[in-house]
Specification:
mainly alpha, ATP-binding, nucleotide-binding, Arginyl-tRNA synthetase catalytic core domain-containing protein, ATP binding, 10 helices, protein biosynthesis
Length: 263
Protein backbone atom coordinates (compact mmCIF):
# COMPACT_ATOMS: atom_id res chain seq x y z
CA UNK A 1 0.00 0.00 0.00
CA UNK A 2 1.38 3.42 -0.99
CA UNK A 3 1.67 6.34 1.46
CA UNK A 4 -1.21 8.16 -0.21
CA UNK A 5 -3.44 5.10 0.15
CA UNK A 6 -2.52 4.75 3.83
CA UNK A 7 -3.36 8.42 4.44
CA UNK A 8 -6.68 8.06 2.67
CA UNK A 9 -7.54 4.95 4.69
CA UNK A 10 -6.53 6.65 7.95
CA UNK A 11 -8.67 9.69 7.09
CA UNK A 12 -11.65 7.54 6.18
CA UNK A 13 -11.40 5.50 9.40
CA UNK A 14 -11.20 8.66 11.50
CA UNK A 15 -14.12 10.20 9.65
CA UNK A 16 -16.14 7.00 10.16
CA UNK A 17 -15.45 7.17 13.91
CA UNK A 18 -16.85 10.69 13.98
CA UNK A 19 -19.92 9.62 12.01
CA UNK A 20 -20.43 6.82 14.53
CA UNK A 21 -20.29 9.38 17.39
CA UNK A 22 -17.01 8.09 18.84
CA UNK A 23 -16.41 10.35 21.87
CA UNK A 24 -12.62 10.47 21.55
CA UNK A 25 -12.75 11.32 17.83
CA UNK A 26 -15.41 13.99 18.38
CA UNK A 27 -13.48 15.51 21.29
CA UNK A 28 -10.32 15.84 19.17
CA UNK A 29 -12.31 17.28 16.29
CA UNK A 30 -13.87 19.91 18.56
CA UNK A 31 -10.43 20.93 19.87
CA UNK A 32 -9.00 21.22 16.35
CA UNK A 33 -12.04 23.11 15.15
CA UNK A 34 -11.81 25.63 17.99
CA UNK A 35 -8.11 26.18 17.22
CA UNK A 36 -8.93 26.71 13.55
CA UNK A 37 -11.75 29.18 14.27
CA UNK A 38 -9.48 31.20 16.58
CA UNK A 39 -6.90 31.35 13.78
CA UNK A 40 -9.55 32.39 11.23
CA UNK A 41 -10.80 35.17 13.48
CA UNK A 42 -7.30 36.49 14.10
CA UNK A 43 -6.29 36.51 10.44
CA UNK A 44 -9.55 37.88 9.04
CA UNK A 45 -9.77 40.64 11.65
CA UNK A 46 -6.49 42.05 10.32
CA UNK A 47 -8.10 43.03 6.97
CA UNK A 48 -11.18 44.18 8.94
CA UNK A 49 -13.38 41.20 8.05
CA UNK A 50 -15.66 39.90 10.78
CA UNK A 51 -18.31 37.19 10.86
CA UNK A 52 -21.27 36.75 13.19
CA UNK A 53 -21.30 32.94 13.01
CA UNK A 54 -18.57 30.39 12.23
CA UNK A 55 -19.95 27.10 11.01
CA UNK A 56 -19.28 24.46 8.40
CA UNK A 57 -20.35 21.17 6.89
CA UNK A 58 -18.95 19.28 9.88
CA UNK A 59 -21.62 20.94 12.03
CA UNK A 60 -24.42 19.52 9.90
CA UNK A 61 -26.26 16.81 11.80
CA UNK A 62 -27.14 13.33 10.54
CA UNK A 63 -30.83 14.17 10.81
CA UNK A 64 -30.46 17.03 8.32
CA UNK A 65 -28.49 14.82 5.90
CA UNK A 66 -31.09 12.06 6.14
CA UNK A 67 -33.81 14.60 5.40
CA UNK A 68 -31.84 15.85 2.39
CA UNK A 69 -31.72 12.32 0.96
CA UNK A 70 -35.39 11.77 1.75
CA UNK A 71 -36.27 15.00 -0.06
CA UNK A 72 -34.30 13.98 -3.14
CA UNK A 73 -35.91 10.52 -3.09
CA UNK A 74 -39.40 12.00 -2.75
CA UNK A 75 -38.68 14.03 -5.90
CA UNK A 76 -37.62 10.85 -7.75
CA UNK A 77 -34.12 12.25 -8.27
CA UNK A 78 -32.15 9.39 -6.66
CA UNK A 79 -30.65 6.56 -8.70
CA UNK A 80 -28.79 3.58 -7.20
CA UNK A 81 -25.80 1.90 -8.80
CA UNK A 82 -23.92 -0.84 -6.91
CA UNK A 83 -25.19 0.53 -3.62
CA UNK A 84 -24.14 4.10 -4.42
CA UNK A 85 -26.83 6.79 -4.46
CA UNK A 86 -26.63 9.21 -7.38
CA UNK A 87 -28.49 12.20 -8.78
CA UNK A 88 -28.65 12.21 -12.58
CA UNK A 89 -27.46 15.57 -13.96
CA UNK A 90 -26.39 14.55 -17.46
CA UNK A 91 -29.25 16.63 -18.84
CA UNK A 92 -27.35 19.74 -17.73
CA UNK A 93 -23.93 18.27 -18.72
CA UNK A 94 -22.95 17.95 -15.06
CA UNK A 95 -22.50 14.19 -14.91
CA UNK A 96 -23.82 12.15 -12.00
CA UNK A 97 -23.60 13.62 -8.51
CA UNK A 98 -22.90 11.11 -5.74
CA UNK A 99 -25.01 11.79 -2.66
CA UNK A 100 -24.50 8.54 -0.72
CA UNK A 101 -21.68 5.97 -0.49
CA UNK A 102 -21.90 2.18 -0.21
CA UNK A 103 -20.83 2.23 3.44
CA UNK A 104 -23.59 4.69 4.27
CA UNK A 105 -21.30 7.66 4.97
CA UNK A 106 -22.51 10.90 3.40
CA UNK A 107 -20.40 13.19 1.20
CA UNK A 108 -19.95 16.95 0.90
CA UNK A 109 -22.88 17.45 -1.46
CA UNK A 110 -25.29 15.72 0.93
CA UNK A 111 -23.95 17.79 3.81
CA UNK A 112 -24.35 20.99 1.81
CA UNK A 113 -27.97 20.24 1.03
CA UNK A 114 -28.63 19.28 4.63
CA UNK A 115 -26.81 22.40 5.79
CA UNK A 116 -28.98 24.65 3.64
CA UNK A 117 -32.10 23.02 5.11
CA UNK A 118 -30.83 23.65 8.65
CA UNK A 119 -29.80 27.23 7.90
CA UNK A 120 -33.07 28.09 6.21
CA UNK A 121 -35.03 26.77 9.18
CA UNK A 122 -32.82 28.82 11.51
CA UNK A 123 -32.66 32.13 9.59
CA UNK A 124 -35.66 32.04 7.20
CA UNK A 125 -33.61 33.94 4.61
CA UNK A 126 -34.90 35.22 1.27
CA UNK A 127 -31.57 34.66 -0.47
CA UNK A 128 -28.45 32.67 0.39
CA UNK A 129 -25.11 33.62 -1.18
CA UNK A 130 -22.15 31.23 -1.27
CA UNK A 131 -18.69 32.83 -1.60
CA UNK A 132 -16.10 30.17 -2.45
CA UNK A 133 -13.00 29.59 -4.56
CA UNK A 134 -13.31 28.84 -8.28
CA UNK A 135 -12.13 25.26 -7.64
CA UNK A 136 -15.61 24.53 -6.25
CA UNK A 137 -17.41 25.42 -9.52
CA UNK A 138 -18.55 21.90 -10.44
CA UNK A 139 -19.43 20.97 -6.87
CA UNK A 140 -21.61 24.06 -6.44
CA UNK A 141 -23.12 23.78 -9.92
CA UNK A 142 -24.24 20.26 -9.06
CA UNK A 143 -25.41 21.50 -5.68
CA UNK A 144 -27.66 24.18 -7.18
CA UNK A 145 -29.12 22.27 -10.42
CA UNK A 146 -14.94 21.25 -6.17
CA UNK A 147 -6.30 24.93 -4.15
CA UNK A 148 -5.33 21.82 -2.21
CA UNK A 149 -3.13 22.35 0.90
CA UNK A 150 -1.80 18.81 0.56
CA UNK A 151 -0.25 19.70 -2.80
CA UNK A 152 1.34 22.82 -1.38
CA UNK A 153 -0.33 25.16 -3.88
CA UNK A 154 -1.99 27.45 -1.35
CA UNK A 155 -0.60 30.82 -0.31
CA UNK A 156 -2.11 31.67 3.07
CA UNK A 157 -3.67 35.04 3.82
CA UNK A 158 -1.36 35.76 6.76
CA UNK A 159 1.68 35.22 4.51
CA UNK A 160 0.34 37.66 1.90
CA UNK A 161 -0.46 40.30 4.54
CA UNK A 162 2.93 39.92 6.21
CA UNK A 163 4.78 40.29 2.90
CA UNK A 164 2.68 43.32 1.89
CA UNK A 165 3.39 44.96 5.25
CA UNK A 166 7.13 44.32 4.92
CA UNK A 167 7.23 45.84 1.44
CA UNK A 168 5.36 48.97 2.58
CA UNK A 169 7.61 49.30 5.65
CA UNK A 170 10.68 49.27 3.40
CA UNK A 171 9.11 51.97 1.23
CA UNK A 172 8.27 54.14 4.25
CA UNK A 173 11.83 53.90 5.60
CA UNK A 174 13.16 55.52 2.42
CA UNK A 175 11.79 58.86 3.64
CA UNK A 176 13.42 59.32 7.06
CA UNK A 177 11.58 62.53 7.99
CA UNK A 178 8.10 61.20 7.30
CA UNK A 179 9.02 57.87 8.89
CA UNK A 180 9.94 59.57 12.18
CA UNK A 181 6.63 61.47 12.19
CA UNK A 182 4.56 58.27 12.11
CA UNK A 183 3.56 57.12 15.60
CA UNK A 184 3.59 53.37 14.87
CA UNK A 185 5.32 52.87 11.50
CA UNK A 186 5.19 49.06 11.52
CA UNK A 187 1.46 48.95 12.24
CA UNK A 188 0.86 51.71 9.70
CA UNK A 189 2.87 49.81 7.08
CA UNK A 190 0.84 46.68 7.80
CA UNK A 191 -2.43 48.62 7.42
CA UNK A 192 -1.29 50.13 4.11
CA UNK A 193 -0.22 46.67 2.95
CA UNK A 194 -3.62 45.21 3.81
CA UNK A 195 -5.31 48.07 1.96
CA UNK A 196 -3.12 47.40 -1.08
CA UNK A 197 -3.95 43.68 -1.06
CA UNK A 198 -7.69 44.31 -0.85
CA UNK A 199 -7.71 47.04 -3.51
CA UNK A 200 -5.61 44.86 -5.83
CA UNK A 201 -8.07 42.00 -5.37
CA UNK A 202 -11.06 44.26 -6.05
CA UNK A 203 -9.42 45.88 -9.08
CA UNK A 204 -8.79 42.42 -10.57
CA UNK A 205 -12.52 41.78 -10.81
CA UNK A 206 -14.62 42.72 -13.82
CA UNK A 207 -14.20 46.50 -14.33
CA UNK A 208 -16.67 48.45 -12.17
CA UNK A 209 -18.31 51.71 -13.34
CA UNK A 210 -15.96 54.74 -13.05
CA UNK A 211 -18.04 56.28 -10.26
CA UNK A 212 -17.87 53.36 -7.86
CA UNK A 213 -15.21 52.13 -5.39
CA UNK A 214 -12.45 51.18 -5.77
CA UNK A 215 -11.95 53.40 -8.88
CA UNK A 216 -13.37 56.72 -7.66
CA UNK A 217 -11.26 57.38 -4.50
CA UNK A 218 -7.88 57.12 -6.31
CA UNK A 219 -9.12 59.44 -9.07
CA UNK A 220 -10.40 61.92 -6.51
CA UNK A 221 -7.07 61.78 -4.66
CA UNK A 222 -5.09 62.52 -7.82
CA UNK A 223 -7.45 65.33 -8.80
CA UNK A 224 -6.87 67.18 -5.51
CA UNK A 225 -3.16 66.46 -5.05
CA UNK A 226 -1.87 69.79 -6.35
CA UNK A 227 0.16 72.49 -4.62
CA UNK A 228 0.12 75.10 -7.40
CA UNK A 229 -2.95 77.05 -6.28
CA UNK A 230 -2.58 80.75 -5.46
CA UNK A 231 -2.48 82.11 -1.92
CA UNK A 232 -5.95 83.66 -2.02
CA UNK A 233 -7.46 80.29 -2.80
CA UNK A 234 -6.05 78.70 0.36
CA UNK A 235 -9.30 78.82 2.33
CA UNK A 236 -11.33 77.25 -0.45
CA UNK A 237 -8.57 74.70 -0.92
CA UNK A 238 -8.63 73.67 2.74
CA UNK A 239 -12.42 73.29 2.67
CA UNK A 240 -12.12 71.19 -0.47
CA UNK A 241 -9.53 68.97 1.20
CA UNK A 242 -11.81 68.53 4.22
CA UNK A 243 -14.66 67.38 1.97
CA UNK A 244 -12.37 65.11 -0.02
CA UNK A 245 -11.04 63.60 3.20
CA UNK A 246 -14.56 62.74 4.35
CA UNK A 247 -15.48 61.25 0.97
CA UNK A 248 -12.30 59.16 0.83
CA UNK A 249 -12.73 57.95 4.42
CA UNK A 250 -16.34 56.97 3.71
CA UNK A 251 -15.34 55.18 0.50
CA UNK A 252 -12.63 53.26 2.34
CA UNK A 253 -15.07 52.16 5.04
CA UNK A 254 -17.45 50.92 2.34
CA UNK A 255 -14.57 48.75 1.15
CA UNK A 256 -13.93 47.53 4.74
CA UNK A 257 -10.66 49.51 4.86
CA UNK A 258 -9.46 51.50 7.87
CA UNK A 259 -8.58 55.14 7.06
CA UNK A 260 -5.27 56.30 8.55
CA UNK A 261 -4.74 59.71 10.13
CA UNK A 262 -1.11 59.81 9.02
CA UNK A 263 1.11 57.74 6.75
Amino acid sequence: MEDGDEDALHNWLWFKRMEDSDEDALHNWLVWREMSVRKYKKEYERPNVKSDVYTGESRVGKEAMDRALETLESMDLILESDGVKLVELEKWKLGKAVVGKKDGTPIYLTRDIGGVIEQYERYKFNKMIYVVSSQQDLHLTQFFKGMSTRKGTVVFLDEIIKEAGNVMHEQMMKNKEKYKAVVDPEETALEIGITGVKIQDMAAKSPPPPYTPPTSPPKLTHATSHSSWEEEKAQAKMFLYKCVREVLAGSMRLLSLRPLERM
